[in-house]
Design goal:
This protein has about 350 residues and is of the alpha/beta class. The chain folds into three domains: about 90 residues, Rossmann fold (3-Layer(aba) Sandwich), CATH 3.40.50.20; about 80 residues, 2-Layer Sandwich (Dna Ligase, domain 1); about 120 residues, ATP-grasp fold, B domain (D-amino Acid Aminotransferase, Chain A, domain 1), CATH 3.30.470. About 30% of the residues lie in helices and about 25% in strands. It has a six-stranded antiparallel sheet with strand order 15-14-11-12-13-16. A five-stranded parallel sheet has the order 3-2-1-4-5. A hairpin with a 5-residue loop joins β14 and β15. α1 packs across α12. The longest helix has 15 residues. It is globular and about 65 Å long. One of its GO terms (molecular function) is ATP binding.
């Protein structure tokens, strides 16, 4: 019986801990990062440090050298994934599977640039009414139009993750809101002080969506969905989330998987408008920070589904019974020992 292929998780972010744990139950695992303090390193059978300062163009050559030297059978890419995807044939020539969110290198840029993404999928997916602003004057004009139509407006950078830079515009300042730690609302006066006469990045000015928020974690292979988990963010004590059945959102995820040639884990965010209709916020061409929550809600080992599709040819659609509620809690991890060599 042939040995299981070694799976290497390159430098990545928080969901990698959950993915490495799932992979280690089935395959030999390597994990790497530029910092020995990365929490997921201890979950792999072996961990090592990547060199600091390798640029995007040079990173595929570094990864290919590690594959050759260590006999890696699959690379789960975490950084510079568009450049890795452009070298897929080079990995395959070494007998190594490259596992990143999409088979198309251009998908990562499409998802990163939300202004372009909105334009590409306008009319095919339900989105909030949106304008692009490059100056304070444009932002102010767009916000006024949207406030008149929808009652409230907000803005965020066209590029960014974790909702950084997102603010809801208000007409008045509030000391109570300020002292309560509210970092989401920003008055027009405060925004003017910050943004007027500044060189601004492209900003999306949008109608504010006040309804329920949904996160869709999905696994695809060659553009076809293998599993999808829709979770509703209930909130309250402990950040409770619940798995729900929303075929409409699943169909949108299937469309995105097909159009963007998704080939691994990815995430889609939706929020309801004033009428309770879900609107697409963004697509993340990567595993989400809530991946472990979706796995707990569904009972599906989403990271293993991804690996088995690539390494064992298992591509059947997997389902689950929705309705489970979970909360997340902090976990204390021992920092793992790493090999003090770059690969």
């Amino acid at each position: 019986m042939p040995a299981s292929p070694t799976v290497w998780f390159t430098k990545n972010i928080s969901p990698t801990l959950h993915r490495v744990r799932e992979a280690a139950s089935r395959y030999p695992t390597l994990a790497s990062h530029t910092s020995a303090d990365a929490g997921y390193l201890g979950a792999a059978q072996e961990a090592f440090l990547e060199p600091v300062g390798i640029g995007p163009e040079a990173y595929p050559d570094y990864a290919l050298e590690v594959v050759r030297r260590r006999g890696v059978g699959a690379v789960v890419g975490g950084r510079h994934v568009a450049h890795l995807a452009a070298h897929r044939a080079d990995f395959e020539a070494l007998g190594c599977r490259l596992i990143v969110a999409s088979r198309e290198p251009g998908t990562f840029e499409r998802c990163e640039d939300k202004a372009r993404f909105y334009a590409d999928f306008s009319g095919r997916l339900p989105m909030p009414e949106t304008r692009v602003a490059h100056t304070w004057e444009e932002l102010l004009a767009h916000a006024g139009e949207l406030e008149a139509r929808h009652g409230s407006a907000c803005f965020k950078p066209a590029r960014g993750i974790y909702g950084h830079g997102f603010r809801i515009l208000t007409r008045e300042d509030s000391l109570e809101r300020f002292f309560s730690g509210d970092r989401l609302q920003l008055s027009h006066a405060a925004a003017e002080l910050l943004l007027k006469d500044q060189a601004l990045p492209p900003l999306l000015v949008m109608e504010t969506l006040p309804g329920q928020e949904y996160s869709v974690d999905a696994v695809a292979h060659s553009g076809a969905l293998l599993a999808v988990v829709v979770r509703r963010k209930v909130g309250g004590l402990g950040n409770v989330q619940q798995s729900v059945s929303l075929p409409e959102l699943e169909s949108y995820a299937a469309l995105l998987a097909r159009e963007l040639q998704m080939d691994g884990l990815f995430n889609v965010q939706f929020k309801e408008d004033r009428d309770g209709q879900p609107r697409l916020l963004e697509v993340n061409a990567r595993a989400s920070g809530g991946l472990a929550i979706s796995a707990a809600l569904s009972g599906l080992k989403l990271g293993l589904i991804e690996l088995e599709a690539h390494l064992e040819g298992r591509t059947g659609r997997q389902a689950f019974v929705p309705g489970r509620r979970v909360t997340d809690a902090r976990e204390v991890l021992e920092v793992g020992r790493v090999t003090e060599v770059a690969g």
